[in-house]
Amino acid sequence: MSNQSEPLSRRxxxxxxxxxxxxxxxxxxxxxxxxxxxxxxxxxxxxxxALNNQA
Length: 55
Description:
By secondary structure, this protein is mostly helical. The chain has helices at 10-25, 33-54. It starts with 9 loop residues before the first helix and ends with a helix.
């Protein structure tokens, strides 16, 4: 196993930022982390699609 971490993809970076927002918005609520992660990835995919359609 390598100690070097791979750079995050654009999708991964967006999903991580979105997940931070989801966690903050749901502070104190009982929301499953898997559901939050799925939502973050869906939002990241939608954002990438929208950005690609603008080009």
